Amino acid sequence: MSAAQCPCCPNTLVSISITISGERRTMRSCSRCGYRGWYAGDSTDRLERIALSGVLDEISDERRANAPRRSDPLSIAGR
Ligand SMILES: [Zn+2]
């Protein structure tokens, strides 16, 4: 893992990589100022900053995919 400097202070960010729906996502956080950022990909130098809401959408999508399948989504939407 490559160390990255916090954009808000001189501290070094801590990187945590997780896999969501088969995609690598890296969360970088700063223990000094509380900065937190999500990035697409693994902890390489070419990380792309992504919005936290996008990550949360992916997590909820994965939960939905792992949940027991409902028979017909249209019948549920009609209620
Ligand atoms: Zn910081």
What do you see in this structure?
The protein has 79 residues and is of the alpha+beta class. It has one domain. Helix content is 25%, strand content 33%. It has a five-stranded antiparallel β-sheet, covered by helices on one side. The chain is elongated, with a radius of gyration of 17 Å. Zinc ion binds next to loops.
List keywords for this structure.
79 residues, single chain, 5-stranded antiparallel β-sheet, elongated, binds zinc ion, alpha+beta
SSE run: EEEEEHH
- What is the helix tally? 2
Strand content: 25-35%
Radius of gyration: 17 Å
Short description, anyone?
By secondary structure, this protein is α+β, with helices and mostly antiparallel strands.
Write the SSE topology.
Elements: E1 4-5, E2 12-20, E3 23-29, E4 36-40, E5 48-50, H1 52-66, H2 73-77
The protein binds zinc ion (ZN).
The site of zinc ion has 8 residues, from loops.
